[in-house]
């Protein structure tokens, strides 16, 4: 479970995130959406312990991130939008390295189904330089899943994936949630959020605009019951959608 | 269209200057600029404009010493230029070498701009660098130069402009030959053969030098020959380029400038009239350069090299359970490659042992042993002080990887230790090797086996123990610099533009701070070591005192290292990456 209470992050005079509170229960997938500069990345970085919050508390699986950062980080996995891999480690060596960091003694047994599921079983001996962008992304995911995290953060997970990869990634997220993981998914792809997430948190200028299940949010903001999340998003953030392109005659 | 290119050029330069000036409002850049300016004033300008041609406070040069040196250099300038140019033809770029940035290529290549205009644009851009280089070299070479500073600046400008145009023209010519079906290898073979024949013919023509064993006599002979036919004729085009710089007075300069400018104009005509499709090569260059810049900003050691494609052997088997910092060592040793393994070190030690034993077997080879003693001692000292600074990039990667490492379930000190382990291990093993060379060579030179054994055991057991914590402490200073002054420790100049004197000043301040902290860190260990040596020497004896001293120093340095890693770990945990990285 992820519990964020009163999260505030300031950069000098500028407040990137203000008094943000939310909870993600096991089995839930929360979509973190908002326009550019809304504070999504800052929220993710604070929640994963990469940067310290100015105020507020973050609990990962019941462990306070400030009081016991190592304990909290043992329970989480962070999948950044840009796969940052070590040039000289093969796929398998990446998993070995992460296993040592997390103390996963049976990593070989765990790695096999993960790699098979991600269609990377035959790529164990390859270096990142030999992998496509999508494969690199999958390797990041494999590393993240190796220690069976209870809390998972995805930052734009579909970047660089082919249609097959996108479908599998969505299924992976759903399956992880079914298995009891609490997931936060940050993305600009509102259709993805609508498809995968059970809950949505809409941020604007560092503040929470809306938080709740997709149905609740739709009821609160939509102009009609069949409104898409895109319509709800623009309504909630009070931005006008981009006008349709003007085609030359 | 030319107006747009001039606008792009002028605006870019103006904006870069404005940006530089604006960032001086930040204290870190202002302080750097002040120190950098002071350095330039006292070291570069002071030397350039002082009467003696020396930096303020330094001893004056002997009368006429520089002019004499210049007179010696001048005859060899044209041959040197000839070698540079011929090497450029032999090993230079095989395709048109007009270099555009990615953005220039993206905007200018699809634009309705003629090739000739693009060439003019590039030549204009190159001129800024050439002018600055000419100015800087004039300042640096003032001490030995003759004539007015402007005359020298013009001399440098003629030299570099001609060289620049020649290399561009040469690359165009090679591209044209390529388009005619003559591949680069054949081009080089043809040119190499022609040069070889010309060299042999000249060699045959030249008289035999009177004394080949006396290097001064040989230089005199070479100087004479350069001034006589056939070499003087062969080198004429090259000497036309170098003469303006070496002209002793204004009259001679103006006389030399005319032919040099004519030659420059000829080069310009050659380049501008060449109808070569340089776009493809320029696009490749732009992409390669963008990758290199990105890699350098990411802190990679060799940005010119692409991503590796062959897996490297593991230095040892990494168990899934155990001390987490070892995982960093394992990872970094894999990245360093198969050469950096224990077996390499053992082979090197065995080879050195064999070599020194062989050298020690004959008195006549004693000089070589002394060379090993001197060089191993010098390298060891230089590496101890400079090694951690050399490893700066390794430590600077801390910043670029922080968003990954801070997500690991590790305490800050574990991450710090993990990142420092590989440079510590690497430098320690090199130091141990040099120490071994030193001790073996001293022992063999003195022909004292007992001395060898005693000093060896004492040295290896004692001094060798001091090395790892000392190296670790020095690396901690680098690490602290990264965490406390992240902007100053940036591996590459900020995206805002270039290096400049402010960054030079920042590095000077940083280096001074490094030396001060180093002295402070060594004081407790040095003091305690001296005390132990004094007491133990009086009570037990020299060798035992030496061993006890090294053990004490090593223990204190070890404690300091542990404290430093703990302190840096705490700082790392509190370190707010977001203030240094774009949100």
Explain this structure:
The complex is a heterodimer of chains A (249) and B (583). By secondary structure, chain A is α/β, with parallel strands linked by helices. Chain A is built from nine helices and ten strands. Chain A folds into two domains: 2-75 and 150-237, P-loop containing nucleotide triphosphate hydrolases (Rossmann fold, 3-Layer(aba) Sandwich); 84-148, no CATH class. In chain A, β7 (151-155), α6 and β8 form a beta-alpha-beta unit. The radius of gyration of chain A is 19 Å and the shape is globular. The N and C termini of chain A lie far apart (55 Å). The model of chain A has no long low-confidence stretch (mean pLDDT 87). Chain B has three domains: 1-54, no CATH class; 65-295, no CATH class; 325-579, no CATH class. In chain B, α2 crosses α19 (500-539), α3 runs antiparallel to α10 (236-246) and α16 runs antiparallel to α17 (412-446). The radius of gyration of chain B is 30 Å and the shape is globular. The two termini of chain B are 38 Å apart. The relative contact order of chain B is 0.08. At the A-B interface, α1, α2 and α3 of A face α13 and α16 of B.
Instruction: Spell the H/E element sequence of chain B.
Output: HHHHHHHHHHHHHHHHHHHH
In total, the number of strands of chain B is 0
Strand order in the largest sheet of chain A: 6-7-8-3-9-10
Which protein chains make the most extensive interface, counting residues with beta carbons within 8 Å of the other chain's beta carbons? A-B, 44 and 39 residues
Per DSSP, what share of the residues of chain B sits in E-state strands of 2 or more residues? under 5%
What is the overall number of helices of chain A? Answer: 9
Distance, first to last CA of chain A: 55 Å
Structural class, from helix and strand content of chain A? alpha/beta
Give the overall shape of chain A, derived from the CA principal axes: globular
User: What's the main sheet of chain B like?
Assistant: none
Q: What is the percent of helical residues of chain A?
A: 25-40%
Q: How many separate helices of chain B? A: 20
pLDDT under 50 segments of chain A (min length 5)? none
Give the % helix of chain B. over 70%
Structural class of chain B: mainly alpha
Quaternary state of the chains: heterodimer
Rg of chain A (CA only):
19 Å
| Cα gyration radius of chain B (Å) | 30 Å
The CATH architecture category of the largest domain in chain A equals 3-Layer(aba) Sandwich
Tell how many strands the DSSP assignment of chain A holds: 10
* The CATH homologous superfamily of the largest domain in chain A: P-loop containing nucleotide triphosphate hydrolases
